[in-house]
Amino acid sequence: MFWRGFLLVVCDVCGLRGARVFQAYSGLRLCGECFVESVRSRVWGEVERWGLIEPGDSVLLAVSGGKDSYVMLESLALRYKASRLIGLSIIEGIPGYNREDDVRALVDFAKGYGVDVVVVSVRDYVGLSVYEMVREARSRGLVESACTFCGLSRRHIMDYYARMLGASKVATAHNLDDEVQTLVINMLRGDVIGVVKVHPLSPHPEGGVRRVKPLRKVYEWETAAYAMLRGFRFQETECMFIEENPTLRAKVRIALYDLEREHPGSLLRLLEYFDKTLQDAIKKVEPKGSTSTCSRCGALTTQGRGLCKLCELLERAGLTEPRYTRLRLSVKR
Ligand SMILES: [Zn+2]
Ligand SMILES: [Zn+2]
Asked: Counting Cβ atoms within 10 Å, is residue 28 exposed (0-12), middle (13-18) or buried (19+)?
């Protein structure tokens, strides 16, 4: 819980300043400084615990204009040399969402820490924005959720830039809520591979650049409180496609909120339980076979696939020559 006003309660940690945040799961009332510090140290602790950033790594930070991105950028920039970090911001091209001015604010913010941000639009990369892809696909009778077009495009772009820029890891700003939702959804679907993929030590079957999630132990409300306390100018608009169909994720999200409200710390304990239970077993999971390259664009894909997932999806939508095929992804890893 975040208190906007000043209250006559002293911070449980420093005992000096007024408390501004009540961290229900720890029972602590914290001042702004101590709260921000508690978030940062959790991020750094998680990064070190799982080797999310190791000596010699250079990390591509997938960032948007949202609060989570700001928190990830700042907490990592305070710990790691700016020369090892580079931002990548993808403009999806969804009306009202992640606009260029939101991204510009983020680019300036990153610059303040010496971190460069590459800005690329889905439209420049694919040839159509996410909105246009969905419209095109629907006009041809292909019913595929907007999130599929968006997710696959973003992934393609991230992999391309990671390889082109020589990054050894891609960090995304998924928070604790996102991770537990994904975990529960995969469990409800009986998707064991999906469950395993949530673990920070999971193997990377497709041979791509390893993805890491430094904010995996930070609640979403905490990234919001952090961003407000630090005065970040982040975008708050939600994607227009989120309302389109009540997905399983939306239902799981509500159920988990209720659980967390009644039993603070549930999400944190659930992910911790999962981390520990799978820690030893996951080391024995062999990375799945070899990889091959997409015959159309050259991106890495699982063995036996002619086309990568994005090329395949776009073909079904009637797009056989996306712009990125001219880039040919034969960049060395
Ligand atoms: Zn304090
Ligand atoms: Zn392809």
From this structure: middle
Q: Which tokens hold the place of 294?
A: 């997409």
SS3 248: helix
Nearest ligand to residue 13 Cα:
1
d(CA 67, CA 46): 19
> 22 by DSSP, 3-state: which?
strand
* Neighbouring residues of the ion ligand 1, judged by CB less than 5 Å: 11, 13-14, 17, 31, 34
Q: At what angle do helices 32-50 and 67-77 cross, to 10 degrees?
A: 70
Which one of the ligands is nearest to 319 CA? 2
Cα separation, 143 vs 94, in Å, equals 18
Host H or E run for residue 116: strand 116-121
On whether the CB atoms of residues 129 and 150 are closer than 8 A, the answer is no
Q: Which domains does the chain have, with CATH numbers?
A: 53-326 (3.40.50.620)
* Span 131-162, pLDDT tens digits: 999 998 889 888 888 888 999 999 999 999 99
Question: How far apart are the CA of 96 and the centre of ligand 2, in A?
Answer: 29
Ligand 1 mean position, distance from CA 30 (Å): 5
Q: Report yes or no: 187 and 274 within 8 Å, Cβ to Cβ.
A: no
Q: Say if CB 198 and CB 206 are below 8 A apart.
A: no
- In 3D, which of 160, 135, 156 has the Cα closest to residue 146? 135
Instruction: List, for residues 6-65, the tens digit of each pLDDT value.
Output: 558 999 999 999 999 999 999 999 999 999 999 999 999 999 999 999 999 999 999 988
| Element spanning 249, H or E | helix 248-262
CB atoms within 10 A of CB 197: 16
The CA 128 to ligand 2 mean position distance, Å, reads 15
Is the C-alpha dihedral spanning 192, 175, 117, 122 positive or negative?
positive
